[in-house]
Specification:
Blueprint lengths: L11 E12 L7 E3 L19 E9 L9 E11 L6 E10 L8 E9 L5 E9 L6 E11 L6 E12 L1
Antiparallel strand pairs: 1-3, 1-9, 2-3, 3-4, 4-5, 5-6, 6-7, 7-8, 8-9
Length: 164
């Protein structure tokens, strides 16, 4: 239902805090390159990763530990290495929430993610359920990254969403 001028609800601002777990290796991988390059990736050389596109279904947790935190949702989408001069990804994700007040709702995140910049900001450009007609931003900070392989990364998210 589209709100009208006579039935419109007041807009709210919601703050969500969680951790995003991205694992691209091993039997519990949550992200898979869909066009893997033959040459190995060197995290010190952005050009070695340029053009790689990855599909992900990454868990979101209430704390930084995947084993000792509640899973509160999943980040489903894709990211691609979009820079030849720095480690920066173009991200297109749906964040589906599975716990708490917003269980069953989702929001869409879109933007440029320069992974070695802390903090960094990405846009919230819509959503479903409680987040219909939403807009906002997410502040990201890398909590942990395996610098040897880049295979395991944990990112802290602070999300601010305006919605009805």
């Amino acid at each position: 239902m589209i709100p009208t001028t006579t039935s419109a609800k007041l807009e709210k601002l919601t703050h969500l805090h969680f951790y995003y777990h991205n694992n691209i290796a091993g039997p519990r991988a949550t992200a898979v390159p869909i066009n893997p390059k033959i040459q190995p990736v060197d995290l010190r050389d952005p050009a070695s990763l340029f053009g790689r596109l990855t599909i992900a279904d990454d868990p979101l947790t209430s704390g930084p530990s995947l084993e000792n935190s509640t899973v509160v949702g999943s980040a489903q989408g894709m990211y691609g290495s979009a820079s030849q001069t720095e480690m920066s990804f173009a991200m297109v994700f749906n964040f589906a929430l599975t716990q708490g007040k917003y269980k069953g709702s989702s929001f869409c995140l879109l933007g440029r993610n320069p992974i070695f910049t802390n903090p960094r900001e990405l846009a919230i450009v819509g959503g479903t359920g409680a987040f219909r007609f939403s807009r906002g931003y997410a502040m990201l900070k890398t909590y942990y990254m395996d610098m040897q392989t880049g295979a395991n990364t944990i990112v802290e998210y602070d999300v601010y969403i305006r919605h009805y």
